Amino acid sequence: MHAYIQQCNYNILQAPIPHTAIMISKLSLLLIGLIHVRDLLAFVVVPCTKITSTSTTLFQMKRPLLDQIASTLFSLEMDRVESSSVEDDKGRNGEPMEWASDDSLANKFSELVAGNDMGYKFKQWVADIVAGEYDYAQVEAYVNEFVEPSPCKVKMFSFTTCPFCRSAKDYLEMEGIPYQAIELDELEGNRGNEIRATLGKITRRTSVPSIFINGQAIGGLNDGLPGLMPLAKSGQLIEMV
Question: Is the pTM of this model over 0.85?
Fold first, then answer.
């Protein structure tokens, strides 16, 4: 069971969760967050005769709580990456490349979550919390500018440690298909998380790789609309690039 969970749960923050305890912790955080917000709301709506400039609003109280949840989720993700990282045959560190196979448990779980509206909503909720407050319009414009089919038709948002991303790059390079990639985990500050949350709103997928061809989102490696490898197997990819 431990091996199954470690392989198949790749999608909450784009990678498998080491064990059930972490999933329980995340769900507990959600429950605690809801309880706290409920309590804060009850506190704020208590009748009062005057609200002074020093009064604390619900928004001001809620933001630190979300920051704490975001920090905890980010720490869990970093611990997971470090604990599961191995070196592949090209000297790259990250989750095992076997997880990117279309018949792996990790991929099957990824497809299950990607095709489930509740799964998307939960992942988007997590992505939004980790992204925090940011200028959505500015980031959306950045994403749209990058995916324009110039100087090449294939654009990709990626994580360096993600086996699905590395497999997509390996396939494109093997076929001699030019592409450009932005590594979200190498961007300064919280920019990568902001882009990821924005991609979720644009494509309804927070998972990476997030691949675009001719400016249109086609999904990830094995899944999406319809995904890189399904396009390749059908012969459509060559026609598109």
Answer: no
